[in-house]
Amino acid sequence: MTSLSPQASPQSSLSRIRIGSAPDSWGVWFPDDPQQVPWQRFLDEVSQSGYEWIELGPYGYLPTDPATLKEETARRGLTVSAGTVFTGLHRGPEVWDATWAHVSDIAALTQAMGAEHLVVIPAFWRDDKTGEVLEDSALTPTQWRNLTAQTERLAHEVRERYGLKIVVHPHADTHIDSEENVTRFLDATDSSLVSLCLDTGHYAYCGGDSVKLIETYGERIGYLHLKQVDPLILAEVRADEVPFGPAVAKGVMCEPPSGVPALEPVLAAAQKLDVELFAIVEQDMYPCPPDKPLPIAQRTRAFLRSCGA
């Protein structure tokens, strides 16, 4: 991280970065799952950890009635930064109607909560629970054209109808994962419509360098997810071709600052972009014991404060 001048304080060094957390950091991957903590406990504990911003997580985990959710978040001092949608847009125009039915409900709630971003996660090519291969891990040229064109269409519709910006999330076991695929996607999409949610953990999982991406494609970075991977476990799961879900169960995503990438240089590079950015902590831990997330969240928030965030 760049050194601070004598006049600067650590607290002001990352003044454009807004730190938050998400249900993911409490082991929440699904709208309803007996292995997950109740949504009330998540809201209580994320507030107790010192965060002020949260994401909606899987649609239906938090209350979907805006009045209820506003009341529950406000009394805990929390504000929503984004909603999340899952898409399979490489499959072409024939999936548009089903995609929009999924997106529109989440976009409406995101808008009602005063947030401005919609995180778009591409479809997995293998099942994140069973590891079953669902389709080829590489896209054909036609599928790439579908992916980019339909993503631009989604961005336009979401902006026009709900006033939201989409940020596409490169993700392990999807077709937007490695540096090669991320840069191919960015180069083929309209920068005025499509931005990136850079997840530092997923990008490292797939071999990418987050600082390099920020420095190279800074104008396309619209949102951050802060996450680290355990390099030893990562080497094992990559060598054994372990699917992402079981890899998480093995602990491939770890508590900062014990993993990679180092978050201080990432945050410093993001601050240099001179734009307001959300940086949402997401430590994948599904499934996890109910008492595990809170201490980790508290330590992580303290660590990020030590970085100036």
UniProtKB/TrEMBL annotation:
Residues 43-306 form the Xylose isomerase-like TIM barrel domain. SUPFAM superfamilies: Xylose isomerase-like. This is Xylose isomerase-like TIM barrel domain-containing protein. It comes from Streptomyces olivochromogenes.
